[in-house]
Amino acid sequence: MVTTTVRTATAAVASLVLVMDDPDAVEPAGKVWLHWLVWNVVSPRTEIPEGWEPESAVEGVTDFEERGYGGPLVLVMDDPDAVEHTYRLKLYALGSTLDVPDSASKREVGSAMQGDVLAATQLEGTFAP
After folding, report:
1. Looking at domain 4-127, does it have CATH number 3.50.50.60?
2. CA nearest to 59, candidates 22, 2, 111, 16
3. Which of 1, 39, 79, 117 lies 20 to 30 Å (CA to CA) from residue 53?
4. What's the pLDDT tens digit per position in 52-88?
5. Domain ranges of the chain
């Protein structure tokens, strides 16, 4: 992942949630593939550098069945055309921190965020080996 600059719009932002997923994985994997889930990132944070280890935040379990960033993985399998994937990096600014266990799923984190999102943005990129 490349370094990403973060600018929070207001002092009311208490924490950030970061989600990286791959909507192009639906056909080969049967679902939008979760590559990274991080919540309770302390604000203000001005950058998420390449190789960042979120020590003061919580990293959820990804669809690789492990914690931490799982980079691009293009599932070619039997389809030689399935080599290009779109990756979405979503960032949410919240007015509080989330009170969910570190075993929380993407859906549970999303539910806990409801009503507390002050701002959101999305960055998309395409990976083609």
Report:
1. no
2. 16
3. 117
4. 888 889 999 999 999 999 887 655 555 566 567 889 9
5. 4-127
